[in-house]
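Chapter review: from sequence to fold.
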Amino acid sequence: MDGSTDPHAASRKGNRRGGRAAAFLRDSDGALLVFGVYILVLMLIVGGLSVDLMRYEAQRSRIQNTADRAALAAASMRQELEPEEVVADYFAKAGFSAYHTGTTVDVGLNYRNVQARTTTSVNTLFMRLMGIDTLASPGAGSAEERITNVEIAMVLDISGSMQQTPSRIVNLKAAADEFVAKILADDTDNRISISLVPYNGQVNIGPQLTQLFNITHRHGIADVNCVDMPPSVYDSLTLSRSLPMSQTADADTFTTVFSGSTPPDSWNFSNRAPNPGNKWCPPNPANFVRPLQNNAATLRAQIQALTAVGATSIDAGMRWGLTLLDPGSRSVVSDLVAMGAVPAHFAGRPLDFDDPEVLKVIVLMTDGEHFPEERVNDAYKSGMSPIWRSNGDGNYSIHHPTQSGSNKFWVPHRNSGAGEWRSAAWNSGGGVTQLSWVQVWQQLRVKWVAWQLYARPLGGANASSRTAIYNSWVSNFRSLTPTATMDARLNGLCTMAKDQGVVIFGIAFEAPPGGVTAIRNCASPNRFYDVQGLQIGTAFRQIRSQISSLRLTQ
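The token string follows.
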């Protein structure tokens, strides 16, 4: 039979085509399955790679942090152990000794650089499927501590209150002595200079500094080298060498001569001699300013010899402390070098404020608060006075030219102590000597002169009149600076210093509230210490540590 006429032929052809299509579909399913398997394997490899990389990075971070900490600790110039030993100990305690490959140390006269080398190695879990069994890389942690040029002014309170028991001066000496010894111990390259500025009611700048400024009304009294600075010096960063400044008189302007508000009209010679403890510039070489030194023995000897006496003028101490850090005083230091008062290796100091290789520091300490400063007025500092002294009995008389009649010399001890007028200076035998004002203040209290030689003869019998004349002559002889003015001066100086980058460490040592406030306001941020007793030693230790840390670089 002819196939073309077979009625089932079309059906059979269709079945054959359908079978081939089904087979094709079955073949496609198999290909997708294989492809999916490949994708899954690839995802597992990528995920495994991520896990291996995260494990590696976590380990590397732990090792790097250990290296950084070890290098920083070993680089400290206060570290007494060998740097290699410190680094090894850090790795051992962290359980990473196997990853520490070595330590490099570079030590100079004023710096220490430490590099801790490492290697990080992690066995892979998944990357080994790709033929990578281990992830490893080198690393290092580096640190350097560098103390370059450091200029320090130690402005220390040596007022009378420092003698309180238990003695504050003893604790101060111990703390300051240790500070100097430790901070200079590593300075074998003459990088650190320390200026010692003791202060009480004044600052005794010593004979060398006195020669280098324009000091007027010089009295020539040994070891009395304080200066009554004009108000303008507290408004200027630099203390001008040409500015006229009057030398502080060797005088007792403070000690009274009577009790009560109304002075008795009587003679008294027992209270006429000055009280040495109440002179504003006590003649004590141990309390001189010592500029720019790094001889630890010299500085420590002077610290141990400091004597506590007098009032408190923090502003004056700060003025001289800043002067010895101010580059405007470079010519002063040059002259001190020429005199042999400052070591030659400090020629060229004070360095510029903006010198990146210098750290300037003031350590300002007080146990008190400002006390009104007293000074003899210039008109009564030099030249001849109208006061005479008998060479015989040592009693005094005074010439008052405005007194009527021929008797113009008042002799306060005569007439049973009521006093009398005479035509000539009192002479008990041996002649008389007219005194200069310098001699007057060496022998007599300012207030005794105002009462016995002015108020009594010129005030008449009226007590109120005598008191008024007494007060007037005390004011003629002496000026007072209010504490509010002194506080403002101190604050201005501190602001100027901090604006120039000077770091001010402030120590209030058992101080009253006024002193605490003044020192806190003066100190740089986070550089203030309010301490009691032996805590002053801790304060100085922390200051020493911070001075070093301020020069720390990583």
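Two observations follow directly from the output. The radius of gyration is 42 Å. Residues 376-480 form one domain.
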